């Protein structure tokens, strides 16, 4: 017993995939994401140089045959550092999606299904949404301390309300549907109703919002690193690379340009895929495709 927004059968999944790849922008975005993920996973094998190896003799060399993206102020190969930086930037984004999904789904289900808890949880969500994302993230990282794990925790908390509000709104609708009322009448335990009948019908909006949070997290991590409150400057991420290269703007722009391009490609691709998923998974929008 499910609502119309849930993708259950293999046929529906294949139909969703066909509709996604039929849109050129989404197909190109998926290809870009796959390439970035593969490059990050295969970094030790495809990087031409050690991203941490210093070579003062080759410092600040422009892009060329030996160094495709040039070198930084310590002579390190920028191409290799962009690839390795992608590993951590993408890992941060994915980890933030996991943290915010766990917290957001839990809060959203509690607020949407249990009316007695709705006011308290909703006020908490509204209070968190009142703060700008980047300011709340800076405050949390400052309180927890600058580290990779703390950045993930801070951003996960920051983006929890986005998912919690969507889950809550959908749960408020689903809990009043006949199949939920029938399950209650049959004496089905509340935990089973919530996890099987309600949560199962929230997969589509959670997937869509997850892609957006992934993109926001990559951008936010870059912003935190650029401001110097993110991960350690010694760890190559796209944000720390841009932060390190800002002092050479105008003389060695490539230090900032290439990690910046990587951020733009990943964030834009994830946003386009999220838009495509939203259009395909929403029955009302699917009819227009």
TrEMBL record:
Chief location: membrane
Transmembrane recorded as keyword: yes
Annotated InterPro entries: BP-dependent_transpt_permease, MetI-like, MetI-like_sf, OppC_N
Gene Ontology biological process: transmembrane transport
Residue ranges crossing the lipid bilayer per the database entry: 26-47, 88-114, 134-159, 206-231, 252-273
Boundaries of every ABC transmembrane type-1 domain copy: 90-274
Pfam families assigned: BPD_transp_1 (PF00528), OppC_N (PF12911)
Keywords linked to the UniProt accession: Cell membrane, Membrane, Transmembrane, Transmembrane helix, Transport
Family from the record: Belongs to the binding-protein-dependent transport system permease family.
The name this protein goes by in its record: Putative D,D-dipeptide transport system permease protein DdpC
Species this chain originates from: Achromobacter insolitus
Lineage: Bacteria, Pseudomonadati, Pseudomonadota, Betaproteobacteria, Burkholderiales
């Amino acid at each position: 017993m499910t609502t119309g927004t849930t993708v259950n059968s293999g046929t529906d999944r294949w139909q969703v995939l066909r509709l996604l790849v039929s849109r050129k922008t989404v197909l190109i975005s998926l290809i870009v994401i796959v390439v970035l993920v593969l490059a990050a996973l295969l970094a030790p094998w495809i990087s031409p140089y050690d991203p941490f190896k210093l070579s003062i003799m080759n410092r600040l060399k422009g892009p060329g045959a030996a160094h495709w993206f040039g070198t930084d102020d310590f002579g390190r190969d920028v191409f290799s550092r962009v690839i390795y930086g992608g590993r951590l930037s993408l890992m941060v984004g994915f980890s933030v999606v996991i943290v915010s999904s766990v917290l957001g789904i839990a809060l959203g289900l509690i607020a949407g299904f249990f009316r007695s808890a709705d006011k308290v949880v909703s006020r908490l969500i509204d209070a968190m949404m009142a703060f700008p994302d980047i300011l709340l993230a800076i405050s949390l990282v400052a309180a927890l301390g600058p580290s990779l794990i703390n950045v993930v925790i801070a951003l996960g908390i920051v983006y929890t309300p986005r998912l919690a509000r969507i889950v809550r709104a959908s749960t408020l609708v689903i809990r009043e549907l006949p199949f939920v009322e029938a399950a209650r009448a049959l004496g089905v335990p509340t935990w089973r109703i919530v996890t099987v009948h309600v949560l199962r019908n929230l997969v589509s909006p959670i997937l869509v919002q997850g892609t957006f949070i992934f993109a926001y997290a990559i951008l936010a991590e870059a912003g935190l690193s650029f401001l110097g409150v993110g991960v350690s400057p010694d760890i190559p991420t796209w944000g720390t690379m841009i932060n390190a290269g800002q002092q050479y703007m105008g003389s060695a722009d490539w230090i900032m340009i290439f990690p910046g391009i990587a951020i733009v490609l990943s964030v834009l691709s994830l946003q386009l895929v999220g838009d495509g998923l939203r259009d395909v998974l929403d029955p009302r929008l699917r009819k227009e495709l």
